[in-house]
Amino acid sequence: MSTDQKMKRIKDGFAGQRMFVLPPHIRRAVMANPISRNFYITAVGYYPKAWGHERERRYGSNDYIMIYCTDGGGEITVNSAKVNLKSNSYFIIPANTPHKYNSWVNEPWSIYWMHFNGELAAEIYSRCLLAGEPAVHEVSYNGNRIQTFEELCDILAHSYNKREMEIMNFDALHFVTSLVYYREIDPVAYNLDAISSSIAFMKLNINIKYGLSELAKQQNISVTHYSKMFRQKTGSSPVNYFNELKVQRSCQELYFTDKSIKTICAELGFEDQYYFSRLFSKVTGVSPSKYKQLQKCKPLVK
User: I need a surface site. Which of 128, 251, 280, 296 has the fewest CB within 10 A?
Assistant: First the structure.
């Protein structure tokens, strides 16, 4: 990078950047709004190719700080723990915690960053911890996520209207949770372990009857080891879990179609309708016929 480019960075920030900080009176209004006070942002921005970007807060920030890197990389230190943040990964710095961060010199990062707070902030932050500690998470690039970020920046660029601030904070929550819950949003891409694969297999073959040995064989695992792993991950046995998936599907069929209970039972691989009825009652608390009757008797919302 040339001296002229470095001087431009020091004087003008980063070419192509977007940055917004809520004025104090707007922040107070957002915090007082029952719709947005659960989750709101106080500052947000995008720094492309941020050569020389660095920041240290010896006493931390009142807000949680999410940094999502889409290119290059940098270092983040929280207390005395240092992590590298590379392309397609994110990290959340906890509130009120000393920290510092900087972009790499040779491969400066491009980052989307956001300061957020609210009644839900601590709980959302806790969802990205690993073994109780902050961690870097690698995520796949998602164009819709970036579009959501651009939309909230567009709102901030032209209005601080109450309703638009509500929409902006909904967008911000969507952006943050798309990163925090990346595994749940796209389980096929991220949950590549045997049990997640087995659950995906169950969902694809919901209409077939499989026993424990067949499910274990499908994953090339012994029955004993498979059962232990499955219970550790889900808290349930494989067969019970599979049956509960079938009951969930039967609820949809009973609600949305006029199929008979006998037909639904057969389509889900149950040979014994009485066994199916007992299983349904055990899982839902009501019989299939009672469930169907209750759903059909609900008045239409006008």
Answer: 296
Strands of 72-213, DSSP E:
73-78, 81-86, 89-93, 99-103, 110-117, 137-138
The pLDDT of residue 184 is above 90: no
Pick 3-187's CATH classification: 2.60.120.280, 3.40.50.720, 3.40.1360.10, 3.40.50.2300: 2.60.120.280
Token pair recorded at residue 252 = 């949809």
Domain segments of the chain: what residues? 3-187, 191-296
User: Which H/E stretch holds residue 20?
Assistant: strand 18-21
d(CA 208, CA 191): 23
The rounded distance, in Å, linking the Cα atoms of 97 and 78 is: 7
Across-strand partners of 69? 89, 111
State phi, psi for 219 to the nearest 5 degrees. Answer: -100, 5
How far apart CA 299 and CA 302 sit, in angstroms, is 9
CATH of domain 191-296: 1.10.10.60
Sole residue written with tokens 């004087």 = 11
Lowest mean pLDDT among 52-61, 73-82, 222-231, 286-295: 286-295
CA–CA dist 97, 93 (Å, integer):
8
Per residue in 212-234, is it b (16+ CB within 10 Å) or e — as a string? eeebbebbebeeeebbebbeebb
Single out the residue of 13, 10, 189, 17 nearest to residue 88, CA to CA: 189
